[in-house]
Every structure is written in C-alpha cells, then in structure tokens.
C-alpha cells in the first residue's frame, strides 16, 4: 500500500523547520497519521483522526470492526472518510481510512492507512464557527473513481478497472458503484427513491434486486437473494424472494429476521411485488453498505439462474471460486498436538484433516476407539448436529450422534467444519464412513441446506435423510405467521394425527383446498419434500427412538458455547465426553443391579425385563399396560394370514390395523412403531394376547436395546448386513472385549496374570500359531 505524506487535493504550507504552522500550535495533536502510531484506546484513535480530519478538510465515520475468533473481543477498527461508500448521493466511494489494531499489551496501533481522497477537500472544518484565516490552498481536480461496475437494464456484469499504476484499494476490497446511464429512464430513477410496496412493478428480476439493495442501504440492513420457485410446466422461474441478511439461523450472525420482498412474474414478462414484510427483529444501521454488488446472473437459456449470486470482493473471485475457512489457523497445531497425544494412549483413535487445492488445512474430523465401537452398535440412526449454525458459536464444531441402549446420546465423532460447501460436507461424511468401517446408517438427521442434502445423497445412498426439527420449526414460524389460527390448528392435526401416508396426502389436499392455498409456493415446496420431515413418511424408517417431533438433547448441552475459547475447547470437550460416558456407566449398573416391578402377570413382561435395559423396558411396559385399554376384532382370515382391527375403548376414532402371519409369527401394525423405534406397539401386543402368544419371537427383541448391547456380541448374521459390515462388527466387538482385558488386567500384577492366562487359554482354542 502506498502512503503519501499529504491528503489529495491540498498543498500543505511549511515553515522553515519543515512543520506546518498549525502543527506548531497544536503539538502532538497535529501529528500526521503514520503506520506504527500508538494509542491507549480505540476511542483515542478515533478522536485523533477526527482532529486530523478537521484540520485537513473532511469528516469521519466509524467503519467496520473485527472480532477475535478465540474470545470475541474487538481486535481492530476502521475509521473512514464520510464519503466512503455509495449509499447516499453525497458519497463518492472515497478510499481514505485508518485502521487500528489491538496489541497484546492493550495498546492500539495504527497498522493500515490510506490518505488519498477522491474528492475535493474543504479545508479546515471549523466546528466552533470561528473565522480564523487559513493558509492559502491550491485546489486540484478530484481523483478519478478507482473502479466502477456498469449496471444497465440487461443483467450483464461488467467490471471496469481504472486504477492507475496498479495501486490497490484499502484492505484488498474493491469498491463498486452503479452509475445511472443515459439509457435508464426517469421512471427507474424515481423508483429507487420510493419504498417497496405491494404492486410495485419491474421490467426484470435484476432490476427488482438492485432496487431492494438500494432501499436496504438507506434503511440500514443488508440483502441476500432467497428462495426461488419454478413452474412445474416448463421449469421457468415464477417468483423470487429477497431477504434480510439476518434471515434464518444457518450462520452465527443470523437471528431469524422476517423482513423480505417477494416478486412474482407476470404473463407480460414483467415482475410485480406481491408479498412484503418491512419489520426487522434487530437494530438497523442507516447507510449500511452491502458487501459488494450482488447481481443475479443470466443462464445460457436467457432465464434467471436459480441461486447464482456474484459477490465481487477482489479480482480472484471473478475468475474462480475460492473456499473460505472459518477455523482460525491457531486451532490446527493445538488440535493436532492433542490428537497425537490421544493416539499414543488409544490405538483406535482416528483423525483426519481436509486439504484444499493449495494444500492448506480445512475441515478436521476425529473419533476415539470408544466412539468407533459405539458406531458399530448404535450407528443405525445418526444425527449430524450442527448447533453452531443456529447459535453464535465462535467455532464451527459439529458432532455425529447416535443413541445407545439406554436411549442416551453417544458421540460417534467430532468435527470442525471449515466452510458450508458441498465439498466440505462430502469430505466429512466420507471420512466419518471410513473411520466407522464403511457401515452406512439406516437413517440420518441433518439440516436441509442444499450442500448437506447433496453430500448425504452422494455418500449415504439409500439412507433416509430426515431434516432437522429446528429448521422446520423456523420456517413454519416465518411462513405461518400470516395464516389464521384455524388453519394452524388443522395444519398441526394433519401432521401429527395422520397415521399413514395416504391419510396424510388426503388430509393435506383437503386442507389447502379448503383455504384456497393450492398456489401457495411455500406449502407446495414443503409438500414436495414431505418424505424428509412429515411423521407419516418417517415412521417406515428406523430412527432409534428419536421422537416424531424431532427434538433431542445435544450431546454437549451447555458445556460448549459461543464463549468457549481455543484454550478451553479441548479440555471442555474431553470433560463433556467423560461426563456422558459416566452417565452411561451408571445406567449400565442400574440395568444389571435393579429390578423394576412387574405390572402384569404376562410372561412377555418377565421376558423383556430380563433382556431389556431399564429405560427401554419402561417404554415396553407402558405399551403392554396400554394394550389392556384396547379391543381387538378379527376382520379377515385367509390361510395363515389374519387381519385385526384394534381400537381404543371409548374412542372410536383411534383404531389401527394389525396383520398377522401364523406361519412365521410375523406381525405388522399401521402405526409402524416397531419399524420406527424397534419396540412392539400396544396394538400388536393386544393381538398377541388374543392369540395366546406367551413370549415375543426373537426378531422383535433388537439386540441394540438389550443389556448386552454394550459388549457388542455378534450372535447371528442379521438380514441385510453385508460381509464387510459383519467383519466390522466382529472387529469392534473383539477390540472392545480386548480393551476391557487390558483396562482391568493392568490394574495390578495379580489381575494381569489372570487376564494373561485367560487370553492364553483362549488362544489355544483358536489354534494360535507361535
């Protein structure tokens, strides 16, 4: 960066000592800004720059601030010329600024500066309105604008570089200004001065986008290009949403703001504002500049592309895409040092680091042997927990979570996600799969964002991807707020009281027709994705007992938060993990040492008390007790196949169909509880009682719910398990058993001798060769 001695547009008059006469009078306050100048506080730096600006002939605004990724404190500040940016007509995109950075000593040091202005300076700005005579000033012509973006009506992007001698812009950020060409009509220019309102028309979606950006800069917020909707007939775009940058919760800076403008394409080819919300749930900053000119690009067909958004910050972003990294560089050496220490203690510890095309570190994944073994037992239903996206976390920490035989969350791996791209998530899921011996989950709960959806489809084909409940609830709150309460009640009833997919589809169709919402774009979109979130469509897949509403307790609860620093992360991660595992050990002990009371004299209750863990047995016991409140009626019989109608006493509307095969004692119910949770429902238990079936067939006692599940003993080859998956199960079962021999056998010399003798005798039976 070139730093000149004097501001552009002013010639300083020196005395014989080389000092300005003003500087002689004002002492230190008249010192020219230079790199290395120190201040006690950021406010002192601002006051100094204000004083300098007053003497030089411009005004100051407080610009951006930057926070530390470790503790969230302000690490640097920018103070800029009042004509920086283009949000108001009076601004010219002036690049003049200073930046001060906080050092470890607590001092603030000026580390970047740009003294050149691109406008005429007004001489001394005398705030006391005194008329002190000033030295003569020789005015120069204003400097040319460094860079401009031409934005005519047709949405083509043109970047014009007029910077002389290759001089760079401050902070590496190129400023953009939209010039009103002669071809722009007075009508278009007057539009920019108006507020958005329903019925406002535009010639193109791009014109609407630029209008909303101009409006946002005056009001004080930033804009993102939101959802689009396409025609089912020809695939063309029928409507678009432009939203506040703080809409949603996918990033720590977002807070679910509901402000947006939606435009709809008309038959004439134009666009009209048909829905609008101007209310924000956060403070506004009038004059806030959008980060680079955002523009919808044209695709090869001449239509507007779905989500293409160009945000120009430097020349490299124009030519090729570069991936950001939200993980601070200081994290890598600390984590790798910790991983190597863990690997020395735990031979099954696994970790991997993603590298980008330039060889730089990106995402990180790790899992200890206990997590890898847990996945062999409880990796059938997995939650990819990205709570950091909905809260203000300083570190992008994600976890893979399973649910054990006590229905407690168990850690199946941890990760730091460098960026939210498809490449990052694909690498992360593939790495997790490799660490877990290639055994894919039957169901996978994760956010519905496009990069995650694509990565899940790529890495886990055949796995049922269920959307995270917090995202579903967030979008419901946003889109249902304008609907009448009667509709909301029937909407909830349609979701949670329908038992089959046919019943849901029928009730949904009746609901949208009743309220005339057949063309509602949001309802159409969520209906098309119903297999990923509607309970009736989820029940056919195994989700390990996760409630139908999708709520579950995060593994780390409140132990890791937005205030967790690098120094605390590793120790709090290990502490939280040990806490969870101690809770699991307590439940193991309770299951073996405590006997729950029986509520009936049924042999099946005694059978399940003997096999199930305490937590799972209580769930089964509740279903068994409820089965006495139901009546069963055989409605069909042909050969070995029978069908029963099971309904609740006193409630004719609650009824379920149970199909039973006498040849193999196979039963299925319309409620699909066994398919979803792996436990028999009250309806099948009622039919078993009618048929005098005294014990449950072995297929209905899932090993994952039993007391012995933690030992991972592989009894038989389960249906659908490949030879690779079976080998992985056997490896982790034997490895876990061996680790227990090591753990207890090394506690004393006597126990070591006993453990060694047991293993030696076992080796003889396996015919080990010396």
TrEMBL record:
The keyword Transferase does not apply. It comes from the Eukaryota. GO terms for biological process: regulation of DNA-templated transcription. It holds the Pfam family MULE. The keyword Zinc applies. Residues 127-139 have a biased composition (Polar residues). One of its GO terms (cellular component) is nucleus. GO terms for molecular function: zinc ion binding. Residues 656-692 form the SWIM-type domain. Its main location: nucleus. Residues 125-146 are annotated as: Disordered. Keywords: Metal-binding, Nucleus, Zinc, Zinc-finger. InterPro entries: FAR1_DNA_bnd_dom, FHY3/FAR1, MULE_transposase_dom, Znf_PMZ, Znf_SWIM. It is found in: Nucleus. Putative transcription activator involved in regulating light control of development. Belongs to the FHY3/FAR1 family. This is Protein FAR1-RELATED SEQUENCE. It comes from Microthlaspi erraticum.
């Amino acid at each position: 960066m070139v730093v000149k001695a004097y501001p552009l547009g002013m010639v300083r008059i020196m005395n014989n000592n080389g000092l300005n006469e003003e500087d002689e009078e004002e002492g230190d306050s008249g010192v020219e800004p230079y790199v290395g100048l120190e201040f006690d506080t950021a406010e002192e730096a601002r006051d100094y720059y204000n004083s300098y600006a007053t003497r030089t002939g411009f005004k100051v605004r407080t610009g951006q601030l930057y926070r530390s990724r470790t503790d969230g404190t302000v690490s640097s500040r920018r103070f800029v010329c009042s004509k920086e940016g283009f949000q108001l007509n009076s601004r010219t995109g002036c690049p003049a600024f200073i930046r001060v950075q906080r050092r470890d000593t607590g001092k603030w040091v000026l580390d970047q500066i740009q003294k050149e202005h691109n406008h005429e300076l007004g001489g001394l700005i005398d705030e006391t309105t005194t008329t002190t005579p000033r030295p003569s000033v020789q005015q120069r012509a204003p400097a040319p604008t460094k860079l401009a973006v031409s934005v005519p009506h047709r949405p083509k992007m043109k970047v014009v570089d007029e910077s002389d001698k290759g001089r760079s812009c401050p902070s590496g950020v190129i400023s953009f200004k939209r010039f009103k060409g002669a071809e722009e009509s007075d009508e278009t220019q007057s539009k920019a001065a108006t507020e958005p309102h329903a019925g406002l028309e535009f010639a193109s979606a791009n014109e609407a986008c630029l209008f909303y950006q101009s409006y946002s800069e005056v009001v004080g917020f930033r804009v993102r290009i939101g959802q689009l909707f396409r025609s089912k007939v020809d695939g063309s775009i029928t409507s678009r949403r432009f939203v506040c940058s703080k809409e949603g919760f996918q990033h720590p800076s977002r807070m679910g703001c509901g402000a947006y403008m939606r435009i709809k394409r008309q038959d004439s080819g134009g666009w009209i504002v048909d829905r609008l919300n101007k209310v924000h749930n956060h403070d506004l900053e009038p004059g806030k500049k959008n980060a680079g000119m955002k523009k919808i690009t044209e695709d090869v067909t001449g239509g507007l592309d779905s989500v293409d958004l160009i945000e120009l910050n430097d020349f490299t972003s124009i030519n090729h895409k570069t991936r950001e990294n939200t993980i601070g560089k200081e994290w890598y050496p600390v984590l790798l040092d910790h991983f190597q220490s863990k690997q020395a203690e735990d031979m099954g510890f696994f970790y991997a680091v993603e590298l980008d095309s330039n060889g730089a570190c990106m995402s990180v994944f790790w899992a200890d042997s206990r997590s890898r073994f847990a996945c062999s037992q409880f990796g059938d239903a997995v939650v990819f927990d990205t709570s950091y996206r909905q809260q203000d976390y300083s570190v992008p920490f994600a976890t893979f979570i399973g649910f054990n035989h006590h229905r407690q969350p168990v850690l199946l791996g941890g990760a730091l996600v460098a960026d939210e791209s498809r490449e990052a998530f694909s690498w992360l899921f593939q790495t997790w799969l490799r660490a877990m011996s290639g055994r894919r989950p039957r169901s996978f709960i994760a956010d519905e964002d496009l990069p995650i959806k694509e990565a899940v489809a790529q890495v886990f084909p055949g796995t049922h991807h269920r959307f995270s409940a917090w995202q579903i609830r967030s979008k419901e709150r946003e889109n249902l707020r304008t609907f009448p309460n009667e509709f909301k009640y029937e909407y909830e009833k349609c979701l949670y009281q329908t038992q089959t997919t046919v019943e849901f589809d029928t009730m949904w169709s009746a609901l949208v027709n009743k309220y005339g919402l057949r063309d509602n774009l949001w309802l159409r979109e969520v209906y098309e994705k119903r297999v990923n979130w509607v309970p009736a469509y989820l029940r056919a897949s195994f989700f390990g007992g996760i409630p139908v509403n999708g709520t579950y307790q995060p593994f780390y609860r409140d132990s890791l938060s937005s205030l967790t620093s690098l120094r605390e992360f590793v120790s709090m991660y290990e502490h939280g993990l040990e806490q969870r595992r101690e809770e699991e050990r307590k439940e193991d002990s309770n299951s073996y040492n405590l006997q729950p009371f029986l509520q009936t004299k049924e042999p099946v209750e005694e059978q399940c008390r003997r096999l199930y863990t305490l937590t799972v047995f209580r769930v089964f016991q509740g279903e068994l007790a409820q089965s006495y409140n139901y009546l069963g009626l055989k409605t069909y019989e042909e050969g070995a196949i029978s069908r029963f109608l099971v309904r609740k006493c006193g409630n004719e509307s609650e009824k379920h169909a149970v199909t039973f095969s006498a040849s193999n004692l196979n039963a299925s119910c319309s409620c699909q509880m066994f398919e979803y949770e792996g436990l028999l429902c009250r309806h099948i238990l009622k039919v078993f009682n009618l048929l005098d079936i005294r014990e449950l067939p072995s297929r209905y006692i899932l090993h994952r719910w039993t007391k012995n599940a933690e030992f991972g003993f592989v009894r038989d080859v389960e249906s659908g398990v490949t030879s690779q998956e079976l080998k992985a199960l056997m490896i982790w079962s034997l490895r876990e058993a061996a680790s227990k021999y090591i753990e207890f056998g090394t506690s004393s010399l006597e126990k070591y001798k006993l453990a060694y003798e047991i293993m030696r005798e076992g080796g003889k039976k396996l015919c080990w060769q010396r």
